[in-house]
Structure formats: structure tokens, C-alpha cells
Amino acid sequence: MLAISPPGWGANLLRGLANSIQIAVGAFGLGLAIGIAGAWGKLYGSPIVRDLMEVYTTVVRAVPELVLILLLYYAGTDLINRALDGLGYAPVDISGLVAGIGVLGIVQGAYATEVIRGAILAIPQGQIEAARAYGMPPGKMLRRITLPAMLPFAIPGLANLWLIATKDTALLAVVGFNELTQETRQAGATTKAYFTFFVAAGVLYLLLTLFSNVIIGRIERWARRGMPPIAETGR
Amino acid sequence: MSTAASTQPAPARSEWLQPHRIVLIAIAAALVLSAALFMRWEWLPRYYDLALLGIWRTIWILVVTVTLGFMLAVPLGLAQAAGPFWLAWPAKAFCTVIRGTPLLLQLWLLYYGLGSLFPQFPWIRQSELWPILRQAWPYAVVALTLSYAAYEGEVMRGAFAGVPRGQLEAARAFGMSPWKRFRRIWLPQAIHRALPTLAGETVLQLKATPLVATITVIDIYAVASRVRQDTFIVYEPLLLLALIYLIITGILVFGFRKLEAKIPSRLG
């Protein structure tokens, strides 16, 4: 039943996995961008920006992802279409992929904001002061000093976020997007062999996680190059 | 650009209400008021009882799974931190597998997978447990419990390993039996260490509860979905749902903070 060719459902599962990975990568990237902007806003923004970021991270982290996905999925597509309508354009049909990436990206962004904010605060203050003393403009300082210097502190948290992103894609099954969990359920519903397919999908997810762990280990070693090794802390 | 404003100590209470905050609060109040006035809430009285039942179910599932999950997490953490390899290894494998797969998949595996396997065995169908196994909530409770146990087991592993050796040695020098040592010294200090993470994990668990609605357990999320299906009102139930979860999260965080403040923190 798990064969790749049509009588089996292997190809469907693999297609679902590819969709899941695509969404996870997109959402993680979007979340990272939001996170950097959000952390910057929280640390250096005006009081109003800081308060708004606080509301964003608090609300997103307190409300279940499932509810946020429904809310943003319907409200987001509806608002965009209304805006387009108001501007005189024809409404567009937003694909599940784009909507999924957008929704999960906003969720990831809230967590990434906190991770990156903490990492920036962990940079020795002298490095940032030195950059200022050299007269670096803020953009250059972000690119040359802040981002590279915070990376070793941020990578454990960001790695965790990536693993959460891969697993959160399963939630899009609830809005009917054809990622791995949804494909699995369809395969199970057709063949009545639920157990086989769910175990197979679980193995796929697990492989993705374990493979990610190997890559993350490499990246972490690369980001921490030249820094003294630290004893493993609790988490 | 203000320089490193966030490194300053937290502002005193009197500084909290700054002019821009008053404006922001006014805007928020106006938004809430306009939502209350101009959106459609006439469905609320009809679903009031059902919503209360849903909230009760959500809290019930949360409390039961957190309690059971924590009871499982202690041996899991202990086995990984101090157990022999034939205990540590399965515990680690369990945590890795549960943490490496989505909860939704685990839930569906138990509900659809086991649910379709069980009826094939006549002795299960004739057993006295069958009326329970035919319902959805046991699968929800089991899946959420296992998930919480795996995440919390990992936390407890670090907490058990983090208790200073001297404390345990002192307990031993007092001639405490191993069980007494565990009960009086090791476990309380480990729990104290794990408490901040425990609060976070419990909020995550609350956020995982709406998944049970996908296997027909009527929690508050399922109630909101039903309102949407019955009345074709899209946003209002979801917004109210988000507000309910915000309030429950707030209560949880507040409760854990109280609990943390109760325990003297200069241990170890």
C-alpha cells in the first residue's frame, strides 16, 4: 500500500511531505524576517512601536495556533480581497500554500521576535558601542555586527522554532490544505488502513526531525566557531 | 535612536501609564466597543449553555492531561537522568518520537488507527471497556497526556540532573532511605527548578487542546466551529474564542507566578 506507483499511496505521502517542507521553509523564513524586525522594534523602536510589538507577541503566543490559523486564513484572504475590490481590482484566489506560509509565518514571527530579542541582549554591550564609535549607520551595524554576533545565542531557540514549524504544518490539514497529515488521512480513509498510513507519516516526520537535528548541529558548530565551548545547559 | 533603553531596570508602576499608553488603551477600547456594537452577537444567548460546557471540557481536559502527564514525566525524567541504560534508552526514544511528530498526527493515529483496529477483535468489543473505547475522549486524553509527558519528561531530565550533588550527598549522610531522599530532597528541588518551564509547557498544552475538536470531542473550539456552521457568522465566534483562550492563559500564567512566589527561591 505504501508503494510509490499508483495502486500504492507512497507518492501521495511524499507529495504531502514536500508540501509540508515547502510551507515550513517559507513560514520559518517569513517568521525570521518578522522576528528580526520585531526584535529591532522591541529594543530600539519608539514607545508606541514597543507596546504594539508586545501586544503582538503576547496575543499570538497565548492563542492556540489552530484558532489563529482559522482567523488569519479567513480574515486575511477576505481583507485582501476587499482591499483589492476597493482599489478596483478583481479578487484573487489566494492559494493554500501562500495562505499557509503567511499564517504560520505570523505565528512563528512572534516566537522568533522573543528569541532574537534575547539573543541581541546577550551580545556584549561593548561590541555594539564599538560599532557606534566607528560611526556605522544602523543598517550596516545590523548587518555587520548585531546579526552575526547574536547568531550563536539565537541558534538553539531558532532550531526549536524550525522543529515547531515542521510540526505546525500539520495544523493546516484542518483548513484542508494537502500537506502530509491531510494526505495521510485521505489515504487512510480510502483504504481503511489508517494505522499503517499514520505510522508511515509519523516515520516521515520523525526522519525530517532527526535529519534537521544533524543539520542544526553542523550550523551551530559553524556559528560558534572561535567561541569557547560551553557546558551543556538545561535546555 | 534611543540607546539600549531596554537594558534599564523595569519602570516603576507610576511610570507605566505614560501618555502614549493612554492613547493606545483608548484606541483598543474603541475597537472593542465598536466590535461589541457593530458586529453580530445575537447568537450568543442561544449558545450560552453550550459554550459554558465547552469551556468546562477544555479546562477538564487540560487539568487531567497535565496531571497525568506530569505523573508520567517524573519517571521519564528520572530514568533519563539517573536510570540504567535499559531504562534511559526507551525513555529517551519515547521522548524523541513524541516530540518529533505532530500532535495532530498522534491524535489521529490513536483515534482513527486504533479506533479502526479495535473493532476487529471480538474480545475487545465484548469487554466492559468497549462503551468507553467507542467514545472519542479517551483517545484525546491519552494522546495529550503522552505528548505532555514527553515534553515535560525532557524538562524533568534537566531538572533532576541540575539538583546539586551536595544536596543528595547531605541527605545520604543523614541516613535517609533512597525513597525518602527522592521524596524530600530530589523531587521538590527538581520541580522547583522546572516550575518556570512547567508554566510555559502548560500554556502550550492549553493551546494544544483545540486539536481534540478534530476527533469530535466538544470543547470550546468545537462549540465555536458549530456556531460558525449553524449561523454562517465567520469572525465573531473566532474572536470571542481567541479572547477566551487569552483569559485562560492569563489565569494560568498568574497562577503559576503565585505558585513560584510561594516557594522560597534561594535553594540549592
TrEMBL record, chain B:
Alphabetized InterPro entries for the sequence: AA_ABC_transptr_permease_3TM, ArtM/GltK/GlnP/TcyL/YhdX-like, MetI-like, MetI-like_sf
Gene Ontology CC: ATP-binding cassette (ABC) transporter complex
MF (Gene Ontology): transmembrane transporter activity
Keywords recorded for this protein, A-Z: Cell inner membrane, Cell membrane, Membrane, Transmembrane, Transmembrane helix, Transport
Annotated TM spans: 20-38, 59-83, 103-124, 238-256
Record's bilayer topology term: Multi-pass membrane protein
Pfam family, one: BPD_transp_1
Annotated compartments: Cell inner membrane; Cell membrane
ABC transmembrane type-1 domain residues: 55-256
GO biological process, one term: amino acid transport
Taxonomic superkingdom: Bacteria
Family: Belongs to the binding-protein-dependent transport system permease family. HisMQ subfamily.
Xref: NCBIfam families: HEQRo_perm_3TM
Protein name stated in the entry: ABC transporter permease subunit
Organism: Aminobacter anthyllidis
